[in-house]
Amino acid sequence: MSPSSILAGARLALDTVRAHKLRSFLTVLGVIIGTGAVIGVGSIIAGLDGAITNLLRSFGPNTVIVTKTAAMGNATREERRRKPLDLANARAIAERCSAVDHVSPYLFPPNGIHTARYKGNDMYGAQLAGTEEGYAAGGTTMKAGRFFTDQESLHHMPVVVVGADVQKQLMPNEDPIGKRITVDGHELEVVGVMDRPAASLPGQDDTRVLMPYFTMQKMFPSAREHMLVVIAAPGQMIEAQDQVRAVLRLARRVPYNGADTFSITTAEQMIDQFHNVTSTVAIVMVILSSIGLLVGGLGVMNIMLVSVTERTREIGIRKALGARRSDIIVQFLTEAVVLTVMGGVLGLVLGWMISRAAGLIFPNLPTAVPLWAASLGVLVSVGVGLFFGIWPASRAARLDPVEALRYE
Q: How far apart are CA 336 and CA 390, in angstroms?
């Protein structure tokens, strides 16, 4: 098996594709659809995973997250009926938990796509929230300006701090400090730009738009859903969790033998739980998408068997001139791989189009074709060609040269 024989087989396969364009396209249509589905699904899942991971890791390594329902996964009916966490719960933790350095309420806006605008530049899908000065104690550092203060929150000041990618998209060539941006129709003054979280992965966007807690309440009077961001004292993470649990059980009047009506976890635990959810979804979607690859592989095998029959006399001539069985096998395997690789490349284009379409339909969902998905799509297409090309290649190699030369 020499490189020259592989190149000769590839040239022959390309000549066959040019001679039978429609037949070749229909042969690899399943590979195109299967590869495109894998790429598209991978890009959507990777975008969702990146957005949530980036948000959670921004809270810092010593942070305890308190939520009404389980951190990740589908909430049960009992969890949905629970009383929301509120500002009073945050104040009780701050007063009674000695292992806690800071605690900040984190108020979510009503559901929907939230926008930020500056001089005609729009950003969709902003991670909008209202919090307090203690949030910055979780490891938030400032790229420019400062974080807002609790006094600004008490006075409902229209100020905001933004993530690095918000500043990059809205005002890339200007000093952002002191500029006024419009967030969901409300004008706010930028007082600081946050650094990208140190634990975030490359390629993840920092689209946080944080404002003082009471400013958020004034902007969105109907907002009720809270998350409590608790910063544990150094080396006292376990003690902080135990104290927070005791205080909240008392404040929410949970019976001594009753289950918690809230969820306490760390940012890393929430990330692990979310990764478990997305990995399960990814496996299921890839399996479903692989049906198209199976159909495409069967099509390749069928067309290669037809090709062996059509070229029986050619195979007989090659064998009579000294071609070995391995040469025949390499020739037909190369043709099968060339076909499926072409299908894989077209599938990459289809997957990219799916990713772009998802980004346009759901602007708050960052999508990008991850390298692993693109590599997997090409490798799978090569594997399909090799697997489904083995039988036709072996059948061609086993032909008797005398009988092959007599074939009409």
A: 9
Instruction: Looking at the structure, tell me whether residues 82 and 14 fall in a common domain.
Output: no
User: Under 8 Å CB-to-CB from 360, ≥6 apart: which residues?
Assistant: none
Domain count, the chain: 2
Looking at the fold, whether 14 and 112 belong to one and the same domain comes out as no
Rg (CA), the chain: 30
Q: Is residue 271 domain-resident?
A: no
Q: Do the Cβ atoms of 342 and 303 come closer than 8 Å?
A: no
Nearby residues of 162 by Cβ (< 8 Å), 6 or more positions away = 116, 170, 176, 181, 190, 192, 193, 194, 208, 209, 210
Residue where the block lists tokens 């009753």: 258
Whether residue 56 lies inside any domain: the answer is no
- Structural domain that includes position 255: 61-266
Say yes or no: 44 and 71 in one domain: no
CA-nearest of 158, 197, 152, 178 to 61 is 197
Residue 238 lies in a domain: yes
- Please state the length of the chain: 408
Q: Judge contact between 402 and 319, C-beta under 8 A.
A: no
pLDDT per position in the chain (408 positions), as tens? 566 666 766 676 666 667 777 777 777 777 788 777 777 777 777 777 766 666 666 666 678 888 888 755 566 777 778 888 999 999 999 999 999 988 989 999 988 888 999 988 888 888 899 999 988 877 788 999 999 999 999 999 999 999 988 998 899 888 999 999 999 989 999 999 998 775 444 345 788 999 999 999 999 998 888 999 888 888 888 899 999 999 999 998 888 888 888 888 876 776 777 777 777 777 777 677 677 777 777 777 777 777 777 667 776 777 677 767 777 777 777 777 777 778 778 888 887 787 777 767 765 556 666 676 677 777 777 777 777 777 777 777 676 665 656 555
- Give the whole-angstrom CA distance, residue 342 versus residue 317: 29
Exposure on the CB side of residue 332, measured as CA atoms within 13 A: 31
On whether residue 199 sits in a domain, the answer given is: yes
8 and 130, same domain (yes or no): no
Instruction: Say if residue 203 is in the same domain as residue 328.
Output: no
Q: Is the dihedral of CA 398, 386, 341, 392 positive or negative?
A: positive
Type of residue at 382: V
